[in-house]
Amino acid sequence: MTFSMKDELLARLLKANGEPISGQQLADDFGVSRTAVWKHLQALQEEGYTLETVKKKGYVLTGMPDRIDGARIQTFLQTKRLGQSIHHFEQVESTQVLAHEYVRGNVEDGTVVIAESQTAGRGRMLRPWESTAGKGVWMTVILKPDVPPHLAPQFTLVVAVAVVHAMKALYPNLHPEIKWPNDILINGRKCTGILTEMVAEADRVQALLIGIGINVNQQREDFPEELHTIATSMAEQLGHTIDRAEFVAKVLLYLEHYADLYVKNGFSPIKALWEQASGTIGKQVRATTLREVIEGKAIGITESGVLEIQTATGEIKGVYSADIEIQ
Ligand code: BTX
Predict the structure, then answer these.
(1) From the CB of 116, is ligand 1 less than 6 Å away?
(2) 33 CA distance to ligand 1 centroid (A)?
(3) Residues of CATH 2.30.30.100 domain(s) within the chain?
(4) Partners of residue 54 on adjacent β-strands
(5) Across the strands, what pairs with 249?
(6) 181: cis peptide before it, omega within 30°?
(7) Architecture of domain 70-277
(8) What is the whole-number distance in angstroms between the Cα of residue 201 and the centre of ligand 1?
(9) CATH number of 5-63
(10) Per-residue pLDDT tens for 174-223?
(11) What is the pTM of this model?
Protein backbone atom coordinates (compact mmCIF):
# COMPACT_ATOMS: atom_id res chain seq x y z
CA MET A 1 0.00 0.00 0.00
CA THR A 2 1.25 3.48 -0.67
CA PHE A 3 -0.99 5.57 1.52
CA SER A 4 0.29 8.50 3.52
CA MET A 5 0.24 8.51 7.30
CA LYS A 6 -2.63 11.02 7.14
CA ASP A 7 -4.64 8.63 4.92
CA GLU A 8 -3.94 5.71 7.25
CA LEU A 9 -5.08 7.76 10.22
CA LEU A 10 -8.24 8.76 8.44
CA ALA A 11 -8.95 5.15 7.49
CA ARG A 12 -8.52 4.22 11.16
CA LEU A 13 -10.98 6.92 12.33
CA LEU A 14 -13.49 5.87 9.67
CA LYS A 15 -13.26 2.23 10.71
CA ALA A 16 -13.91 3.20 14.35
CA ASN A 17 -17.45 4.04 13.24
CA GLY A 18 -18.15 6.80 15.75
CA GLU A 19 -16.24 5.24 18.68
CA PRO A 20 -13.62 7.63 20.10
CA ILE A 21 -9.93 6.70 19.75
CA SER A 22 -7.40 8.32 22.04
CA GLY A 23 -4.41 10.26 20.73
CA GLN A 24 -2.15 7.92 22.67
CA GLN A 25 -3.73 4.87 21.06
CA LEU A 26 -3.22 6.35 17.58
CA ALA A 27 0.36 7.30 18.41
CA ASP A 28 1.11 3.75 19.63
CA ASP A 29 -0.60 2.12 16.62
CA PHE A 30 1.35 4.15 14.12
CA GLY A 31 4.59 4.29 16.12
CA VAL A 32 4.73 8.11 16.13
CA SER A 33 4.50 10.85 18.77
CA ARG A 34 1.18 12.32 19.93
CA THR A 35 2.28 15.64 18.46
CA ALA A 36 2.68 13.98 15.06
CA VAL A 37 -0.82 12.50 15.36
CA TRP A 38 -2.19 15.90 16.31
CA LYS A 39 -0.53 17.55 13.29
CA HIS A 40 -2.10 15.02 10.90
CA LEU A 41 -5.51 15.49 12.51
CA GLN A 42 -5.07 19.23 12.08
CA ALA A 43 -4.29 18.70 8.38
CA LEU A 44 -7.44 16.57 7.99
CA GLN A 45 -9.53 19.36 9.52
CA GLU A 46 -8.02 21.83 7.08
CA GLU A 47 -9.21 19.52 4.26
CA GLY A 48 -12.79 19.70 5.56
CA TYR A 49 -13.02 16.67 7.87
CA THR A 50 -14.69 17.46 11.20
CA LEU A 51 -13.48 15.88 14.43
CA GLU A 52 -14.92 16.03 17.91
CA THR A 53 -12.94 15.46 21.08
CA VAL A 54 -14.73 13.31 23.62
CA LYS A 55 -13.37 14.09 27.06
CA LYS A 56 -10.92 11.47 28.35
CA LYS A 57 -11.74 9.18 25.43
CA GLY A 58 -10.32 10.67 22.31
CA TYR A 59 -11.23 11.72 18.80
CA VAL A 60 -14.35 10.95 16.77
CA LEU A 61 -14.76 11.68 13.09
CA THR A 62 -18.08 13.50 12.69
CA GLY A 63 -18.06 14.83 9.14
CA MET A 64 -16.32 14.31 5.83
CA PRO A 65 -15.81 16.46 2.79
CA ASP A 66 -17.17 15.08 -0.45
CA ARG A 67 -13.85 13.79 -1.77
CA ILE A 68 -12.45 10.74 -3.50
CA ASP A 69 -9.06 10.49 -1.84
CA GLY A 70 -7.25 7.22 -1.19
CA ALA A 71 -8.40 6.92 2.42
CA ARG A 72 -12.09 7.35 1.61
CA ILE A 73 -11.95 4.90 -1.30
CA GLN A 74 -9.97 2.44 0.79
CA THR A 75 -12.78 2.14 3.36
CA PHE A 76 -15.00 0.62 0.65
CA LEU A 77 -12.33 -1.21 -1.34
CA GLN A 78 -12.66 -4.99 -1.80
CA THR A 79 -10.02 -5.55 -4.48
CA LYS A 80 -6.74 -7.44 -4.42
CA ARG A 81 -4.75 -5.21 -6.79
CA LEU A 82 -6.75 -2.37 -8.25
CA GLY A 83 -6.62 0.80 -6.16
CA GLN A 84 -4.11 -0.62 -3.69
CA SER A 85 -2.10 2.43 -4.68
CA ILE A 86 -4.08 5.63 -5.24
CA HIS A 87 -2.66 9.00 -6.25
CA HIS A 88 -5.33 11.63 -5.57
CA PHE A 89 -5.12 15.26 -6.71
CA GLU A 90 -7.27 18.33 -6.25
CA GLN A 91 -6.70 19.55 -9.80
CA VAL A 92 -4.70 18.18 -12.70
CA GLU A 93 -4.46 18.90 -16.39
CA SER A 94 -5.48 15.33 -17.20
CA THR A 95 -5.13 12.11 -15.20
CA GLN A 96 -4.04 10.43 -18.47
CA VAL A 97 -1.04 12.74 -18.80
CA LEU A 98 -0.03 12.12 -15.19
CA ALA A 99 -0.56 8.38 -15.52
CA HIS A 100 1.95 8.31 -18.40
CA GLU A 101 4.49 9.84 -16.02
CA TYR A 102 3.71 7.20 -13.38
CA VAL A 103 4.13 4.43 -15.97
CA ARG A 104 7.57 5.81 -16.84
CA GLY A 105 8.35 5.61 -13.12
CA ASN A 106 7.35 1.92 -13.21
CA VAL A 107 4.37 1.85 -10.83
CA GLU A 108 2.61 -1.34 -9.77
CA ASP A 109 -0.29 -2.99 -11.63
CA GLY A 110 -3.63 -1.52 -10.54
CA THR A 111 -2.34 1.95 -9.62
CA VAL A 112 -5.04 4.63 -9.80
CA VAL A 113 -4.56 8.30 -10.62
CA ILE A 114 -7.69 10.26 -9.66
CA ALA A 115 -8.55 13.95 -9.47
CA GLU A 116 -11.33 16.17 -8.19
CA SER A 117 -11.06 18.26 -11.34
CA GLN A 118 -9.24 18.35 -14.67
CA THR A 119 -8.39 21.51 -16.56
CA ALA A 120 -7.72 19.69 -19.86
CA GLY A 121 -9.52 16.35 -19.60
CA ARG A 122 -9.44 14.64 -22.96
CA GLY A 123 -11.61 12.24 -24.86
CA ARG A 124 -10.85 10.16 -27.91
CA MET A 125 -9.16 11.90 -30.83
CA LEU A 126 -8.17 14.72 -28.46
CA ARG A 127 -11.75 15.87 -28.00
CA PRO A 128 -12.25 17.79 -24.74
CA TRP A 129 -13.77 16.05 -21.73
CA GLU A 130 -15.67 18.30 -19.31
CA SER A 131 -14.58 17.46 -15.75
CA THR A 132 -16.58 19.56 -13.25
CA ALA A 133 -14.78 19.96 -9.92
CA GLY A 134 -15.87 17.59 -7.17
CA LYS A 135 -18.82 16.18 -9.09
CA GLY A 136 -17.47 13.30 -11.11
CA VAL A 137 -15.04 10.42 -11.25
CA TRP A 138 -12.05 11.43 -13.34
CA MET A 139 -9.51 8.65 -13.08
CA THR A 140 -6.92 6.60 -14.92
CA VAL A 141 -6.35 3.00 -13.93
CA ILE A 142 -2.96 1.55 -14.86
CA LEU A 143 -3.13 -2.14 -15.73
CA LYS A 144 -0.22 -4.36 -16.63
CA PRO A 145 -1.76 -7.48 -18.12
CA ASP A 146 0.48 -10.04 -19.77
CA VAL A 147 -1.11 -9.78 -23.23
CA PRO A 148 0.11 -8.88 -26.72
CA PRO A 149 -0.54 -5.28 -27.87
CA HIS A 150 -3.17 -6.19 -30.48
CA LEU A 151 -5.53 -7.30 -27.67
CA ALA A 152 -5.48 -3.89 -25.95
CA PRO A 153 -8.66 -2.53 -27.63
CA GLN A 154 -10.67 -5.38 -26.09
CA PHE A 155 -9.91 -3.95 -22.65
CA THR A 156 -12.01 -0.90 -23.47
CA LEU A 157 -14.99 -3.25 -23.79
CA VAL A 158 -14.04 -4.94 -20.51
CA VAL A 159 -14.09 -1.52 -18.83
CA ALA A 160 -17.50 -0.59 -20.23
CA VAL A 161 -18.96 -3.85 -18.92
CA ALA A 162 -17.37 -3.25 -15.50
CA VAL A 163 -18.73 0.30 -15.17
CA VAL A 164 -22.25 -0.74 -16.18
CA HIS A 165 -22.22 -3.61 -13.69
CA ALA A 166 -20.89 -1.37 -10.89
CA MET A 167 -23.67 1.14 -11.57
CA LYS A 168 -26.35 -1.56 -11.53
CA ALA A 169 -24.95 -3.23 -8.40
CA LEU A 170 -25.19 -0.06 -6.30
CA TYR A 171 -28.18 1.61 -7.98
CA PRO A 172 -30.58 -0.97 -9.40
CA ASN A 173 -32.92 1.82 -10.54
CA LEU A 174 -30.37 3.10 -13.03
CA HIS A 175 -30.54 1.65 -16.53
CA PRO A 176 -27.16 2.31 -18.15
CA GLU A 177 -26.54 1.06 -21.67
CA ILE A 178 -23.34 0.83 -23.68
CA LYS A 179 -23.37 2.67 -26.96
CA TRP A 180 -20.77 1.28 -29.33
CA PRO A 181 -17.90 1.55 -28.99
CA ASN A 182 -17.69 2.79 -25.44
CA ASP A 183 -20.06 5.46 -24.32
CA ILE A 184 -22.30 4.64 -21.41
CA LEU A 185 -25.66 6.30 -21.83
CA ILE A 186 -28.55 6.64 -19.41
CA ASN A 187 -31.88 7.54 -20.98
CA GLY A 188 -30.08 8.27 -24.23
CA ARG A 189 -27.58 10.72 -22.72
CA LYS A 190 -23.87 10.26 -22.20
CA CYS A 191 -22.90 9.59 -18.59
CA THR A 192 -19.48 7.96 -19.07
CA GLY A 193 -16.59 8.06 -21.51
CA ILE A 194 -13.67 5.63 -21.68
CA LEU A 195 -10.29 6.25 -23.25
CA THR A 196 -7.75 3.43 -23.39
CA GLU A 197 -4.13 4.24 -24.15
CA MET A 198 -1.18 1.88 -24.22
CA VAL A 199 2.56 1.81 -23.67
CA ALA A 200 3.93 -1.28 -25.42
CA GLU A 201 6.94 -3.07 -26.76
CA ALA A 202 6.72 -4.96 -30.06
CA ASP A 203 5.23 -8.11 -28.57
CA ARG A 204 3.87 -7.22 -25.17
CA VAL A 205 1.88 -4.57 -23.39
CA GLN A 206 3.92 -2.71 -20.82
CA ALA A 207 0.92 -0.82 -19.44
CA LEU A 208 -2.64 0.07 -20.32
CA LEU A 209 -3.80 3.49 -19.21
CA ILE A 210 -7.53 3.28 -18.84
CA GLY A 211 -9.11 6.71 -18.58
CA ILE A 212 -12.61 6.66 -17.14
CA GLY A 213 -14.75 9.78 -16.91
CA ILE A 214 -18.08 9.35 -15.12
CA ASN A 215 -20.59 12.14 -14.52
CA VAL A 216 -21.76 11.45 -10.98
CA ASN A 217 -23.20 14.35 -9.00
CA GLN A 218 -23.64 17.14 -11.56
CA GLN A 219 -26.94 18.91 -11.90
CA ARG A 220 -28.12 20.21 -15.27
CA GLU A 221 -26.71 23.69 -14.61
CA ASP A 222 -23.24 22.25 -13.90
CA PHE A 223 -22.87 21.19 -17.54
CA PRO A 224 -21.78 23.74 -20.12
CA GLU A 225 -24.49 24.82 -22.58
CA GLU A 226 -23.22 22.63 -25.44
CA LEU A 227 -23.60 19.45 -23.36
CA HIS A 228 -27.12 20.20 -22.06
CA THR A 229 -28.87 17.98 -24.55
CA ILE A 230 -26.28 15.21 -24.78
CA ALA A 231 -24.88 14.67 -21.26
CA THR A 232 -26.34 13.45 -17.99
CA SER A 233 -25.12 12.40 -14.55
CA MET A 234 -26.01 9.49 -12.28
CA ALA A 235 -27.44 11.93 -9.69
CA GLU A 236 -29.62 13.63 -12.28
CA GLN A 237 -31.08 10.27 -13.26
CA LEU A 238 -31.43 8.99 -9.68
CA GLY A 239 -32.81 12.21 -8.19
CA HIS A 240 -30.18 12.24 -5.43
CA THR A 241 -26.43 12.59 -5.07
CA ILE A 242 -24.27 9.58 -4.33
CA ASP A 243 -21.07 8.79 -2.43
CA ARG A 244 -18.40 8.96 -5.11
CA ALA A 245 -15.82 7.05 -3.02
CA GLU A 246 -18.15 4.08 -2.56
CA PHE A 247 -18.90 4.07 -6.27
CA VAL A 248 -15.22 4.26 -7.31
CA ALA A 249 -14.48 1.25 -5.07
CA LYS A 250 -17.27 -0.69 -6.81
CA VAL A 251 -15.98 0.22 -10.28
CA LEU A 252 -12.50 -0.99 -9.30
CA LEU A 253 -13.93 -4.24 -7.92
CA TYR A 254 -15.82 -5.06 -11.13
CA LEU A 255 -12.92 -3.94 -13.29
CA GLU A 256 -10.54 -6.27 -11.46
CA HIS A 257 -13.03 -9.10 -11.74
CA TYR A 258 -13.71 -8.72 -15.47
CA ALA A 259 -10.09 -7.96 -16.39
CA ASP A 260 -9.04 -11.18 -14.63
CA LEU A 261 -11.87 -13.09 -16.31
CA TYR A 262 -10.71 -11.77 -19.68
CA VAL A 263 -7.06 -12.70 -19.13
CA LYS A 264 -8.06 -16.18 -17.91
CA ASN A 265 -10.92 -17.10 -20.26
CA GLY A 266 -10.47 -14.86 -23.27
CA PHE A 267 -12.89 -12.48 -24.89
CA SER A 268 -15.99 -14.64 -25.34
CA PRO A 269 -17.48 -14.18 -21.81
CA ILE A 270 -16.85 -10.42 -22.08
CA LYS A 271 -18.36 -10.28 -25.57
CA ALA A 272 -21.56 -11.87 -24.24
CA LEU A 273 -21.73 -9.46 -21.27
CA TRP A 274 -20.99 -6.49 -23.52
CA GLU A 275 -23.77 -7.43 -25.94
CA GLN A 276 -26.21 -7.87 -23.04
CA ALA A 277 -25.34 -4.43 -21.66
CA SER A 278 -25.41 -2.77 -25.05
CA GLY A 279 -28.19 -0.51 -26.23
CA THR A 280 -26.83 -0.66 -29.77
CA ILE A 281 -27.20 -4.33 -30.66
CA GLY A 282 -30.51 -5.16 -32.33
CA LYS A 283 -31.19 -1.49 -33.22
CA GLN A 284 -31.28 0.33 -36.53
CA VAL A 285 -28.18 2.50 -36.65
CA ARG A 286 -26.45 5.01 -38.86
CA ALA A 287 -22.66 4.82 -38.68
CA THR A 288 -20.61 7.69 -40.07
CA THR A 289 -17.07 6.54 -40.75
CA LEU A 290 -14.28 8.57 -42.36
CA ARG A 291 -15.11 7.00 -45.75
CA GLU A 292 -18.85 6.31 -45.80
CA VAL A 293 -22.20 6.27 -44.04
CA ILE A 294 -23.56 2.81 -43.26
CA GLU A 295 -27.19 2.28 -42.31
CA GLY A 296 -28.64 -0.97 -41.07
CA LYS A 297 -29.21 -3.19 -38.08
CA ALA A 298 -26.41 -3.59 -35.53
CA ILE A 299 -26.21 -7.35 -35.14
CA GLY A 300 -23.25 -7.83 -32.81
CA ILE A 301 -19.56 -7.31 -32.24
CA THR A 302 -16.72 -9.50 -33.44
CA GLU A 303 -13.99 -11.01 -31.27
CA SER A 304 -11.99 -7.83 -31.77
CA GLY A 305 -14.82 -5.50 -30.87
CA VAL A 306 -15.69 -4.54 -34.45
CA LEU A 307 -19.38 -3.56 -34.80
CA GLU A 308 -21.26 -5.59 -37.40
CA ILE A 309 -24.06 -3.89 -39.28
CA GLN A 310 -26.42 -5.70 -41.62
CA THR A 311 -27.56 -3.37 -44.38
CA ALA A 312 -30.93 -3.48 -46.19
CA THR A 313 -29.37 -5.67 -48.90
CA GLY A 314 -28.36 -8.26 -46.31
CA GLU A 315 -24.67 -7.47 -46.56
CA ILE A 316 -22.77 -7.50 -43.23
CA LYS A 317 -20.31 -4.65 -42.84
CA GLY A 318 -17.70 -4.34 -40.10
CA VAL A 319 -17.25 -0.91 -38.54
CA TYR A 320 -13.93 -0.20 -36.82
CA SER A 321 -14.37 3.44 -35.96
CA ALA A 322 -17.41 5.67 -36.45
CA ASP A 323 -19.93 8.00 -34.88
CA ILE A 324 -23.11 6.06 -34.30
CA GLU A 325 -26.67 7.36 -34.30
CA ILE A 326 -29.28 4.98 -32.96
CA GLN A 327 -32.48 5.34 -34.95
P1 BTX B 1 -15.23 10.77 -26.49
O2 BTX B 1 -14.32 11.30 -27.56
O3 BTX B 1 -16.09 9.61 -26.75
O4 BTX B 1 -16.16 11.92 -25.95
C5 BTX B 1 -15.83 13.29 -26.04
C6 BTX B 1 -17.10 14.02 -26.43
O7 BTX B 1 -18.11 13.82 -25.43
C8 BTX B 1 -16.89 15.52 -26.50
O9 BTX B 1 -16.57 15.91 -27.82
C10 BTX B 1 -18.24 16.09 -26.04
O11 BTX B 1 -19.16 16.13 -27.12
C12 BTX B 1 -18.76 15.04 -25.09
N13 BTX B 1 -18.42 15.33 -23.69
C14 BTX B 1 -17.39 16.04 -23.18
N15 BTX B 1 -17.41 16.04 -21.84
C16 BTX B 1 -18.49 15.30 -21.48
C17 BTX B 1 -19.04 14.92 -20.23
N18 BTX B 1 -18.51 15.25 -19.05
N19 BTX B 1 -20.18 14.15 -20.26
C20 BTX B 1 -20.75 13.77 -21.41
N21 BTX B 1 -20.26 14.11 -22.62
C22 BTX B 1 -19.15 14.86 -22.67
C23 BTX B 1 -14.69 9.80 -24.17
O24 BTX B 1 -14.26 10.46 -25.29
C25 BTX B 1 -13.52 9.47 -23.26
C26 BTX B 1 -13.46 10.40 -22.07
C27 BTX B 1 -12.42 9.97 -21.08
C28 BTX B 1 -12.32 10.95 -19.95
C29 BTX B 1 -11.40 10.45 -18.87
S30 BTX B 1 -11.53 11.37 -17.43
C31 BTX B 1 -10.13 10.64 -16.78
C32 BTX B 1 -9.15 10.49 -17.92
N33 BTX B 1 -8.35 11.69 -18.08
C34 BTX B 1 -8.57 12.29 -19.25
O35 BTX B 1 -8.03 13.34 -19.63
N36 BTX B 1 -9.48 11.59 -19.94
C37 BTX B 1 -9.91 10.41 -19.23
Answers:
(1) no
(2) 46
(3) 284-326
(4) 58
(5) none
(6) yes
(7) 2-Layer Sandwich (3.30)
(8) 28
(9) 1.10.10.10
(10) 999 999 988 999 999 999 999 999 999 989 999 999 999 999 999 999 99
(11) 0.89
